[in-house]
Amino acid sequence: MPGHCMAFAGQGEQVSGTGLPFSILVVDDDPAITRMLEEALTLEGMLVEVAFNGQEAVDRLQATPMTRRLLLLDIGMPIMDGTAVIRWLVEHPEIRSHVTIVIMTANHLLAQYAHLDHDGVLGKPFGMDSVLTLIAAM
User: Fold this and answer.
1) Cis peptide bond prior to 31, omega within 30° of 0
2) Cα–Cα dist 99/94, whole Å
């Protein structure tokens, strides 16, 4: 959705023209994926947060609702899945307006989730080059 795309600055910088801080929130129940993304994106100078299920993500979003975030969101997770997080964001447009949603799921399932409110997709498996290219395009 074009109205939700935003450009991201380097760590410690602010999103251009907003005066608001930003971060990347990685939401995935697979510790190997969250660790890889957190380490690689931090090395690239990005501020990274991690949540291991949708409820943890919603808690972080509620705690700092004005923070601009790129949400790297897995769909299949326990406790609260990615589709429920997206539904929650749609019901909270004051927070959704600060969040860019990138769905992460198996390549063969991407079409199944095309109807969800999102700004980008990462088909699993993916490499860091794909992640960095996607972030640069946001």
Assistant:
1) no
2) 10
Q: Which residues face 122 on adjacent strands? A: 104
Structure tokens at 69: 């975030």
What are 27-85's pLDDT values in tens digits? 999 999 999 999 999 998 889 999 999 999 999 999 988 888 999 999 999 999 999 99
**Domain 24-137 class?**
alpha beta
pLDDT at position 131: 92
- Between CA 125 and CA 20 the distance in angstroms is 32
Longest CA–CA separation in the chain, Å: 39
Helix (H, G, I), strand (E, B), or coil: what is residue 4?
helix
Counting every residue written for the chain, the total comes to 138
Domain boundaries, the chain: 24-137
Spatial distance between the Cα atoms of 65 and 111, rounded to a whole number of angstroms: 30
**How many Cα atoms are found within 13 Å in the side-chain-facing hemisphere of 57?**
36
Half-sphere exposure of 26 (CA within 13 A, CB side): 23
Q: Whole-model pTM?
A: 0.82
